[in-house]
Amino acid sequence: MSNAINDALFGWYPYLCLTIFLLGSLIRFDREQYTWKTGSSQLLRRRQLRWGSNLFHVGILAIFAGHFVGLLTPIWVFDALGVSHSFKQGLAITVGGIAGIACFIGIALLAHRRLFDVRIRNTSAPGDIAILLLIWLQLALGLSSIFVSLGHMDGHEMVKLMNWAQGILTLHPAAAAYVADVNPIFKAHLVLGMTLFLVFPFTRLVHVWSAPVWYLGRPGYQVVRTRFAERGLPMPRPAMQSSEQVRRPAAAPSHQPAE
Questions:
Q1: How many beta carbons lie within 10 A of that of residue 120, not counting itself?
Q2: Fewer beta carbons below 10 Å: N end or C end of the chain?
Q3: What is the full DSSP assignment across 52-81?
């Protein structure tokens, strides 16, 4: 890969993707809130949806946490903790492999459900199907990179990826040079991962911003018992009127003299 293409893909493209990711999400939330969610199909193939969704979300959260910590933690922190590059790479392969397999099975179940059930496919937007296939391809590339990593357990390639990610966040002008000679599978994995950030605001992935994390800090509900419940008495029923009483007013009292 020429230096110009490498600089464009790994020096400029990350900032384009991050800018659209942040500004696009903000603009969509501000101007198109009614498109923030998609139509639900959870009543169809509920068992497959439950298995696929749980496997996918658990796996993707573990993968995201692993990438976040593994790529953005400064190398000197691992050195200070006595964590060698080979041990870190072995840990990443093991934990990332398990999470990746779970996520891959989950996304495969979700894609099969959406593509091969006629009713679900007819109610799916093209973007819903496209984003599933993009994530499926990205997971396939990530799992394939494990076999490449097994060939060099010294962690040298991993250090290059860490330097690149940290260089992008710190606005290092030569960050692209760190990944100039890494394996093509890693490069494809990086490019497709950045592309997911690029298309993020235009897909159903925006529901990530709506994760109900604020529920963790909410005070608990208070159950209030009435006196009737405490004494074991039935709740009184409100007085109800028949429809005839509602439509017709009560008859006026008669003033005829009694016989």
A1: 16
A2: C
A3: HHHHHHHHHHHHHHHHHHHHHS-HHHHHHH
Residue 75 has pLDDT above 60, yes or no: yes
Residue 7 amino acid letter: D
Residue 217 pLDDT more than 90? no
Query: Could you tell me if 52 and 107 are in contact, meaning their C-beta atoms sit under 8 angstroms apart?
Result: yes
Tokens of 222: 């208070």
C-alpha gyration radius of the chain: 29
Residue 246 confidence (pLDDT) above 50: no
DSSP secondary-structure letter at 94? Answer: H
If you count them, how many residues does the chain have? 259
| Alpha helices for 37-183 (secondary structure H) | 46-72, 75-81, 85-116, 118-122, 126-149, 156-169
CB count within 10 Å of CB 12 equals 11
Residue linked to tokens 């209030």: 224
Q: What is the pLDDT of residue 116?
A: 86
Buried b (16+ CB within 10 A) or exposed e, 160-195: bbbbbbbbbeeeeeebbbbbbebeebbbebbbbebe
* Among the ranges given (19-33, 59-73, 166-180, 186-200), the one the predictor scored with the smallest mean pLDDT: 19-33
